[in-house]
Design brief:
The chain is of the alpha+beta class. The chain is about 25% helix and about 35% strand.
């Protein structure tokens, strides 16, 4: 969309007026289209005319060629999303929407209504029936409260009380001495009481700040997941897709910033444009005032610390500084503007007339330009490609998507911003192997969950790069673990991931480098053969290591006797509580013991005389027998019966121990054979002994 200085759409541009750049490099426009429609987002369609698309050649073709009329067969779909809204904000949002939605009739655009808080609720699925849309909008109820205002007021009172107590030893004592004519006798002294009151005030301030941070993170995480779900519903539809997002603020703290990037990436891949509406309208309390309060508080605490040498907050000073930064980034305009700007939309703010939002969105839908190009950089490395669109006409402003991530499989499983670089590493040949990583997938065909598959990835933090900020006295690191599962046809079937933001005080950086990250997820897979591709991506160094394994999920219908994977145990941990038996969780729990598998780490002979192993038998367990075989290079070295614990249940868990003290260094294979009647199943596991 292109607008002039007064905000009016510019509709007479040609292909030669546009300049498209990717990462600062000019691109050749392949096609250029002026799209004109009779209705906007479809909620205020009082009249309908034949849709029309006028296509003109791109910069690589003759600019003088005559445009050709084509029917616009593209549909349009809009999602109206109400975030965690207080009663007053919801009233403004509902009034704006209902004023713009016709009382009845059919429109040319599908419209859905969603509410967030907590989770996402489908108030009305996508429909062209405007009556149903209006009814859905009216059914949305408030989910926010005025607790934030109450918290701010309480914080202000506590800060004032703290200042009074801090000034009291100097002012009140001097006044009492003067009133007593300089005689100190009889003047009460209560420094201990003042110190106690100061501690109580500071404790409550710390609690308010901690709960405020937790609440912000929870609400922001909930909103990001809900928006992602809405974007995915729109991705299923063709044509132009729009999100109208009413919100009181979208937090973008460091933890939540990656989640917002995830939403923006998904929206850009699905060609979804987001229009954010600040539903608080004209605030009675300015967010800049809150920022000023945080800055003043930070300066006050710093002055007290310098003057007395005491830190009454009992929190690192960097935490106070980060709180000031968060107050700036958590201004609702920051997150909302970023969501809208990076998807090609805009933010409506500072007004109680929210109907203006629909009028501007209507204009974007009635007329816009569509340009396509083939990037000169064809590398599919998962990195973000910044797109900049300019117009060779003074006084114009361009609204367009800001970029995309270069992925090999854009039509596969949706990838978050932290996942994209890691997935790009999985598509490299050869696979990266920058540092040691261990990964494994196990199958536990429980009758209630026959496709239960625990996945584990392990990496030492010493392999990651940490950045130490000497000025702030902190360290930081960032890593991502992504596991992609593909079926026998090479199609993506599941993806699990986790981003790790490692941070702390600089003095603890050496200890942080001696840690370990153990990634654990459970997925459910139908019977079949799968490729499990795991990658650990270290963001600061842009280095990664990947591992690929083959997993077979058995078909429980083919056998009355089932068996889990055979697992070499690294360590056993006693736990006080374990998942309930009916929770269908915890396949690595045996009673009150939690088993940590060995994922391929070599085992030192000097430290181990017996090697624990673990497996589970399912189905007809009565009369079941088991045997263990130890092999090396395909040759059987020893075999022995395995005594299974007696059980009348359909599941038998067994933890055994294999004597390895007398074995020389090398790689061995442990095979467990389970038989019952005429049926037999077997599983194997490999381990390596080193001196």
């Amino acid at each position: 969309m292109v607008r002039d200085r007064k905000g009016r759409p510019v509709t007479d541009l040609a292909a030669s007026d546009f300049v498209v750049m990717e990462d600062g490099i000019p691109q050749s426009v392949d096609t250029f289209t002026r799209v004109s429609r009779g209705g906007g987002i479809g909620v205020n369609v009082g009249w309908r005319v034949p849709d029309r698309t006028v296509a003109t050649p791109g910069t690589g073709e003759s600019a003088d060629a005559a445009p050709s009329d084509q029917p616009d067969t593209a549909d349009a779909t809009t999602a109206i999303v109400f975030d965690h809204l207080s009663a007053e904000s919801l009233r403004l949002a509902q009034r704006a929407t209902l004023d713009y939605v016709p009382m009845s009739g059919e429109g040319s655009v599908r419209v859905g209504v969603f509410a967030i808080g907590p989770g996402v609720r489908i108030v009305q699925g996508y429909t062209t029936d405007r009556t149903r849309v209006r009814q859905a909008v009216a059914r949305v109820v408030p989910s926010g409260t005025s607790a934030a205002d109450g918290t701010r007021e309480r914080t202000d009172n506590l800060l004032a009380q703290r200042r009074q107590l801090q000034d009291q030893p100097e002012t009140s004592t001097a006044a009492q001495v003067a009133a007593a004519g300089g005689n100190l006798v009889g003047i009460p002294s209560s420094p201990g009481q003042r110190e106690m009151e100061l501690r109580l005030v500071q404790t409550e301030l710390n609690m308010i700040r901690s709960f405020d941070n937790m609440d912000r993170d929870h609400r922001g995480y909930d909103t990001a997941l809900a928006l992602l779900s809405v974007v995915r519903t729109l991705a299923e539809y063709p044509g132009r897709k729009t999100v109208v997002f009413f919100s009181e603020g979208l937090p973008v703290s460091p933890v939540l910033s990656a989640r917002l990037d995830w939403v923006i990436d998904a929206a850009n891949r699905a060609n979804v444009t987001a229009y954010a509406v600040d539903a608080e309208g004209l605030r009675t309390k300015s967010t800049s005032a809150e920022l000023r309060r945080e800055v003043d508080t930070f300066a006050e605490e710093r002055m007290v610390q310098n003057a007395t040498g005491l830190n009454r907050t009992e929190q690192p000073l960097t935490m106070a500084f980060e709180r000031v930064e968060d107050t700036l980034t958590l201004d609702s305009r920051t997150g909302l503007a970023r969501l809208a700007r990076d998807t090609g939309g805009f933010l409506v703010e500072g007004s109680n007339d929210l109907s203006a939002a629909f009028r501007r969105i209507d204009e974007d839908h009635q007329f816009h330009y569509l340009l396509t190009y083939s990037p000169t950089n064809a590398a599919l490395d998962g990195k973000f490609r910044a797109i900049q669109v300019k117009v060779r006409r003074p006084g114009t402003q361009v609204f367009a998507r800001k970029g995309y991530r270069a992925l090999r499989t854009p039509g596969g499983l949706a990838a978050g911003s932290f996942e994209a670089p890691a997935l790009a590493m999985l598509d490299r040949t050869p696979l990266p192997n920058a540092f040691p990583v261990h990964a494994a997938a196990f199958t536990f065909p429980d009758p209630a969950r026959p496709g239960l598959t625990p996945i584990l990835v392990q990496v030492r933090t010493e392999a990651l790069r940490f950045t130490v900020d000497s000025q702030r006295g902190t360290y930081s690191g960032q890593a991502a673990i992504v596991v992609r599962i593909r079926d026998a046809q090479g199609q993506d079937v599941q993806k699990v991931s986790q981003e790790y933001l490692l941070a702390g005080e600089a003095r603890d950086s050496d200890a942080a480098r001696q840690g370990e990250i153990l990634f654990y997820r459970e997925v459910d897979l139908p019977p079949g053969v799968y490729s499990v591709e795991s990658v650990v991506f270290d963001a600061p160094s842009a280095q990664a290591s990947a591992r690929v394994a083959t997993l077979t999920v058995p078909d429980p219908e083919r056998s009355r006797l089932g068996m889990s994977s055979l697992m070499i145990v690294n360590r056993i941990e006693e736990v006080t509580d374990r998942p309930a038996p009916d929770s269908m969780a915890g396949p690595l729990y045996v009673g009150r013991k939690l088993l940590y598998p060995n994922l391929g780490t070599p085992i030192r002979r000097s430290e181990t005389t017996e090697l624990p192993f673990y497996f589970t038998v399912y189905g007809s367990t009565r009369g079941t027998q088991a045997h263990a075989d130890l092999l090396r290079s395909g040759q059987t070295l020893a075999e022995a019966p395995v005594t299974l614990p007696p059980s009348t249940e359909s599941t038998v868990q067994h933890v055994g121990r294999l004597p390895v003290g007398a074995l020389p260094a090398g790689t061995y294979e442990l095979r467990i054979r389970v038989t019952n009647g005429g049926q037999e199943v077997s599983r194997t596991a490999f381990f390596t002994l080193v001196d």
